[in-house]
Each structure stands twice: as C-alpha cells, then as structure tokens.
Task: structure prediction
Amino acid sequence: GSAVGMDKVAQKRIYQALGIPTAAFVVVTAAQHRASAKRFPKLIAEAVGYPCFVKPPNLGSSVGISKVHSPRELAPAVRLAFRYDTKVMVERAVPNALEIEVAVLGNDAPKASVCGQIIASNEFYDYNAKYVDGASRAVIPAPLPVGTSERIRGLAVAAYQALDLSGMARMDFLVDAKTRKVYLSEANTIPGFTSISMFPKLWAASGLPYARLLDELVRLAQERHAARGKLQTSFKPKQQWYR
Result:
C-alpha cells in the first residue's frame, strides 16, 4: 500500500478506476517533455487548464511543487519538478479550495476520524507553510456541513481500502467552498506523528487520545502479524519420477 501511495500518479489512477473523485491531471516523462516542450503549454491548457499544480509524483512535504497561473509560468515549474523525479504530474487546481484532512485507522475494518481543515499561510500548503513560518493553523473539526463531512469520511475509507492500506494513513482532500464538490488529493500512508501533526490531533478530537492511539496502532500491528504469520512462506513441489 505504501509503495502505491508513494506515487501520486499510481494512486490517482486507482481512484479514477474506482470512481473516487480526484482532480484532472496529465503525466509527462522527461523524454516526452523534450519532444513536446513548445506545444506543452497549449496541451496543458486543453487537458488541465490554468491555474494548475506541477508536481514531482514521488516526493512529499510539497517539495518541488509549484502553482502555475499562466502558460509563461509553466516551463520553470516543470524544470523544478524534474529536479526531483523522472516524470512530472500537472494537476488541475480546485477552485475556492478548502484543504481538508482525515485520519484513517484500521486493518480490515478501517474507521475515519472527524475532518480537519488546514488554513495555510501561503496561497497553498507548501513547504514553507507546513514547516517554516509557523503561521498555518488547523481547525478541528472542520466547519463543513454534516453531509459534506460524512461524504469525505466515506471516501477516505474507500480510498484507504482501494490502496490496500493497513494500520494508519492520512487522507488529504480539496473541497470547492462554493459548490462543496469533493476531490481526493492524496493518501499519506505514513503520516506525521509529532505534537503538531494532524493525525494524532484528528483522533484526539474523535475521542481517541494519544496514549490510546498508540495502543491501538500496536494492537493493529500485532493483528497484521498474526494474520500474515498463518500464511505459507515456502513451496516444495511434490517429487515426480519419470521414466
């Protein structure tokens, strides 16, 4: 699950196949980009539109991500993303986007926490807003209509199961503040667990304080180990005699 979740393109293709809403995107390799560099801004305008986000798919913490508002900003954003990955994902920007996060816990029967909202200090939740300036803040529970919150929590569990995750994950969503349309951004299969991290905060707000959350993670690990310990891990074919 973490191997699939590490690749933003791979996980989004799974979401698309299962009908889980996610923002439109295109993927380009370095070779493909070299062959279409002059036409690329037009291709992006037709397939994704502006504004959009340019991302290295196999990286975290918003490193190498740029928000592109016009075709003239595209080339430097693509160059930056290619510093970190051999392919680049260009994703449609959700209008009026609210950053919503949900923590999921469990193995075969996962459960979702309450929703939390990130109020980013920058235009989007970039590296500086996450870790440097200290000006971003979290609102838990998120000020959303009950129906929207329940839809997000249901999609979080569906995506968790679609990626075959276990133990824990944090699911990140974008919600159009005007239309309330929900988009799954990505799964973080090993989320932050510090004092400022959303995962433990979301569970604390859901009635599971830090110490009990640790106990539950240990219990889930033991449950996984017991289930996998019953599997046969070697194979010896029956000996055949031929004349």
Remarks:
- Strands lie at 25-29, 52-55, 66-68, 87-92, 97-106, 111-119, 137-139, 167-176, 182-188.
- Residues 210-229 form the longest helix (20 residues).
- The chain has a mean pLDDT of 94.
- Residues 64 and 80 are 6 Å apart (CA to CA).
